[in-house]
Amino acid sequence: MTQKTVLIAPDKFKGTLTALEAAAAMQAAVHRIWPTASIIRLGLADGGDGTCTAALAAGGTEHSTTVTGPLGRPVPAAWVRLGETAVLEMANASGLRHVEPTPENALRASTFGTGELIRAALDDGATRIVIGLGGSATTDGGAGAVQALGVKILDANHNPIPEGGAGLGTARSIDLTGMDPRLSQMEIVMACDVTNPLCGPNGAAHVYAAQKGANPGARIALDAALAYWAHLLRSISGVDVSKLPRAGAAGGFPAAFMALTNATMQPGADLVFDLINVDEALAAADLVLTGEGSLDDQSIQGKAPIALAQRARTSGIDAIAIAGKLELDQATLAPHGIVVAESAAQHAPSLQDAMRNPRHYLEKATESALHQYERIRQ
Asked: Carries keyword Zinc (predicted)?
């Protein structure tokens, strides 16, 4: 085993370690057990928080652009250039981290800053833009973002509508004459793991706006505004975004782009894997070591570590998973390609100690998992 190549590729351990910090801890443990093992190290993400970090670890260059936050205040927003691709996270520009979740803010929050990030990427010469959609504070159907890119959304008096989802109800026309022409010449791909429609009982407002502060009245108002926005978009583009799966992701952000540009959507983990060349890394690996903060029922619904283990299994490669907290048993994990799973928390005397010293206990859990692996593969 000492001459083997190990692909170390965890997702973040939320609240304690970034994906790259977790990978460094795992690597230290691998080299204590197998000192001469070759290491390939990547950071995973499933298209939300951490997507930029994964692109940076894959050789990207970090940029920062000051944009308009969801409530109009300037915020610095990081993004990454990886070759001809710009990698953006909606949360960095229009995220819930920038606002207090109240009904008023849920109605007012705008994606204008995400549009400014797209414009910054265009100005930098990117020919492809990847957007991670998780963590938004907004429910404006992407209207703010396309406004930042030159689209005019006007009320009955031909004035710009108020920002935010609530403002959509006052819109009467869409003017595309000033839309940035570069949008028609480039590829825009949005990472998304939900299938919710734009509006209705399973739509953006009723399913996701509560976590952004919207009370029942605000959710009803936002849903009606999104339905009307879909009508306006259809009138100018011929695309009925109200019928499109995934259009309700991130407060309906995809709706404007799917109607007005050639943007597409892709499952988050698959998109990130392609971005950071996971298949190339797997081709060189003999073993995969992955993990995340919690391995639970959500993990097997398309989260990055399980998706990686499944790809590894298809290639005939074993996968080991380390979690901060492990809620799935081996019988559940085995069909997904994981041959050994270990919890870092079980090595700590208390949860509080595990949270205070995450790297130490992650290393211990990794060493324990590698010893288990040696026993079952003797």
From this structure: no
